[in-house]
Each structure stands twice: as structure tokens, then as C-alpha cells.
Write a structure and sequence with these properties.
142 residues, mainly alpha, Cytochrome Bc1 Complex, Chain D, domain 2, two-stranded antiparallel ribbon, 58% helix, elongated
């Protein structure tokens, strides 16, 4: 009986450690995501507001909106590519065609990830999956 009780106590003890570790991992990931979004906001203010405005609404028929943007949310890789390498050609955002060129901003991969995390979680956009530096590095110019 004592062995049985001891095994139950030991099992509960070990189980409690695994739950704390899972909780720590989730909290740590959430913190990294929040920090990335904060850094991305600073980059956005410095590099993007002159065209896309502080509210992310852009300028109709000139600079596409990032606020509630179907393109941004549905074309994750293309959006990363545009920030990383610039953009030429037509794109359609929220039913409006934009043809203006976007120059390469000269951002590092970690800065691209941060600004993407910011803009995909601002102005009505919600992206629960963090964009990582590894994901940005994997996007080629094509």
C-alpha cells in the first residue's frame, strides 16, 4: 500500500513539472512575439508611414492599405518578399489594383520579420502565427 501511494505521489510530482515547462514555453513564445511586434512598430514608423500612413490605410490608388488587407493576410510569402526585396508590377488589395513600385528598404531578415509581425497584427489584422527570421530567410527573390 505504501509503495502504491508513493508511486502516485511521485507521478503527480513529475506531472506537475511537465505542466510548468509547457506553461513556460507558451509564455516565453508569447513574450518573443510581443517583443517582435513592438520592434516592428518602431521599424514601421521609421520606414513605412510615409507611404502607408500611421494608420496603415495607405493612399487609395497609389499606396495599398495594410489595414484590413486581404493581400497581406492571404499572401504571406509575397508580402515578406515585397518588404525584403521590393515590389514591381500589379497587385490587387481589397479589390483595388495598385501598380506603383515599392523600393527595397534594405532591412535585415530580423527586421522584416518584426515589421511583418507588427503589420499583420495591427489595424484590424490578426495573425496568431509568428513570422520568424527563418521564415524570412527562406523567401527568395524569384
Amino acid at each position: 500500500m505504501k509503495k502504491f501511494l508513493l508511486m502516485i505521489i511521485l507521478g503527480l510530482f513529475l506531472f506537475s513539472f511537465s505542466k510548468k515547462e509547457d506553461s513556460y514555453t507558451a509564455i516565453n513564445q508569447d513574450t518573443k512575439f510581443a517583443e517582435s511586434i513592438k520592434r516592428g512598430e518602431e521599424i514601421y514608423i521609421d520606414m513605412c508611414t510615409s507611404c502607408h500612413m500611421t494608420n496603415g490605410e495607405g493612399k487609395l490608388n497609389v499606396y495599398p492599405p495594410l489595414a484590413k488587407s486581404d493581400y497581406l493576410m492571404q499572401k504571406r510569402e509575397a508580402s515578406i518578399r515585397a518588404i525584403k526585396y521590393g515590389l514591381r508590377g500589379k497587385i490587387v488589395v481589397n479589390g483595388v489594383t495598385y501598380k506603383k513600385m515599392m523600393s527595397r528598404l534594405g532591412l535585415l531578415d530580423d527586421e522584416v520579420a518584426d515589421v511583418m509581425n507588427y503589420i499583420t497584427n495591427s489595424w484590424g489584422n490578426k495573425n496568431p502565427k509568428m513570422i520568424t527570421v527563418e521564415e524570412v530567410k527562406a523567401v527568395s527573390k524569384k
